[in-house]
Design a protein that fits this description.
This protein has three helices and no strands. It has 79 residues and is an all-alpha fold. The protein is extended.
Length: 79
């Protein structure tokens, strides 16, 4: 089966030197410090991540407005 052009682009995508303005895969890439306790727990097989249906509700790239913004607007709470 022949792979589509999009599949090939995704496969070949290198986020370390991405030059595509507004790239959907890279635009939310932000530096952070991963706590060593999390790394150690993962290596030891003792890490559980609880992520439910609302895990993406605060990402503007998923929905136009975040859940927080929607509730704030409904309750008329100023920013």
């Amino acid at each position: 089966m022949k792979q589509s052009n999009v599949e090939n682009q995704l496969k070949e995508h290198n986020p370390e030197n991405c030059q595509t303005p507004g790239c959907e895969r890279c635009k939310l890439k932000k530096p952070f410090d991963l706590p060593s306790e999390i790394v150690d727990a993962c290596k030891a097989g003792n890490l559980i991540v609880f992520a439910g249906a609302g895990v993406s509700t605060e990402s503007a790239s998923v929905y136009k407005h975040t859940f927080y913004q929607k509730i704030r607007d409904e309750l008329k709470i100023p920013e």
